Amino acid sequence: MAQRGLGRGLDSLIPLRTKQPAEPNAPKELVSVEKIRPNRYQPRTRFNDSQLQELADSIREQGLIQPLIVTPSDGDGYELIAGERRLRAAKLAGLAEVPVVVRKATNREQFQLSLIENLQREDLNPIEEAQAFKRLMEEFHLTQEELAKVMGKGRVVIANTLRLLNLPRSLQDAVSDGIISAGHARNLVSIEDEKLQGEIAQRILDEKLTVREVEKIVSDWKGAISSGRVDTRRKDPEVRALEESLRKALGTKVEVRARGKGESTKGHIKIAFYSLSDLERLVAMLAKT
């Protein structure tokens, strides 16, 4: 598999995509697992337990073939730069010592190398990747342009990834868990209405919408707002509650436009549909009532 682009100079610090030990000619030494602390800049927050156990079983049978990369820490200890999954598995396998390559690295290099290793191994989910980009920018005062150069990516890619952090926590979790894709989520980010975001996310699951279909739904919504076809003014709380009840019952966007108060209230209802089959579904539901 072709290696993804690295920032200039970083590929000389650590070759990350190889089945051979990281540096064949670099001196290796055995170090107690108790002397190696996790990388404080580790961008990965989720580890698959079953896959970790499979790796531990392999290490127990064959040993740890590829050494960990560490940097000297306080006293005679070390801090991990690359290989946290292997270190965790080695501990599960009961290893007391593991082979390491010791390399001095600045805090910035540690973060960059840890991030790049996870990205190249495709170990990060889209939200972890966005959080890592954000932290790298904040801790080391990088612009999006500078981060793009460091990571060997386009600025637009960085910007679109960071935008995922504007989603509500529930939707970020859905992306992290693989319930909805990053492509779906990037479309949802452009909607400022959290309720509508949730509605469309539910439709993605229920109707198995493609990214292109979600893009069309969002585009239609934006067009309706810009043309004034959607009323974004504050509604009477009772009207909004009834509007919400209709939305939940029908499973689609519902807009109630009302004027007057109490029994003299008049207006009309708009019910959104996004395909002929969607319209047929709504007609069938309304016909039952």
Topology:
Layout: E1 28-32, E2 36-37, H1 49-62, E3 68-72, E4 78-82, H2 84-92, E5 97-102, H3 107-120, H4 126-140, H5 144-151, H6 155-163, H7 169-176, H8 182-189, H9 194-207, H10 211-226, H11 237-250, E6 254-259, E7 266-271, H12 276-288
Parallel strand pairs: 2-4, 3-5
Antiparallel strand pairs: 1-5, 3-4, 6-7
Helix pairs in contact: 1-2, 3-4, 4-6, 5-6, 8-9, 8-10
Structure description:
The chain has helices at residues 49-62, 84-92, 107-120, 126-140, 144-151, 155-163, 169-176, 182-189, 194-207, 211-226, 237-250, 276-288; strands at residues 28-32, 36-37, 68-72, 78-82, 97-102, 254-259, 266-271. It is an alpha/beta fold and 289 residues long. Among the domains are: 10-123, Conserved hypothetical protein from pyrococcus furiosus pfu- 392566-001, ParB domain, CATH 3.90.1530; 235-289, no CATH class. Strands 1-5-3-4-2 form a 5-stranded mixed beta sheet. A two-stranded antiparallel sheet has the order 6-7. Strand 3 and strand 4 form a beta hairpin. Helix 4 (126-140) crosses helix 6. The radius of gyration is 26 Å and the shape is elongated.
In short:
With 289 residues, the chain is α/β, with parallel strands linked by helices.
Helix and strand run: EEHEEHEHHHHHHHHHEEH
- CATH C-level category of the domain at 10-123: Alpha Beta
Instruction: Calculate the terminal CA-CA distance, rounded to whole Å.
Output: 57 Å
| Average pLDDT for all residues | 78
Radius of gyration over all CA atoms, rounded: 26 Å
Query: How large is the share of residues in beta strands?
Result: 5-15%
Number of distinct beta strands: 7
Assign the structural class, choosing from mainly alpha, mainly beta, alpha/beta, alpha+beta, or little secondary structure: alpha/beta
Named CATH topology of the domain at 10-123: Conserved hypothetical protein from pyrococcus furiosus pfu- 392566-001, ParB domain
What is the percent of helical residues? 40-55%
**Corresponding CATH architecture of the domain at 10-123:** Alpha-Beta Complex
Strand order of the largest sheet: 1-5-3-4-2
Question: Strand count, sense and closure of the main sheet?
Answer: 5 strands, mixed
What are the low-pLDDT stretches, counting only 5+ consecutive residues below 50?
1-24
- Helix count equals 12
Query: What gross morphology would you assign?
Result: elongated
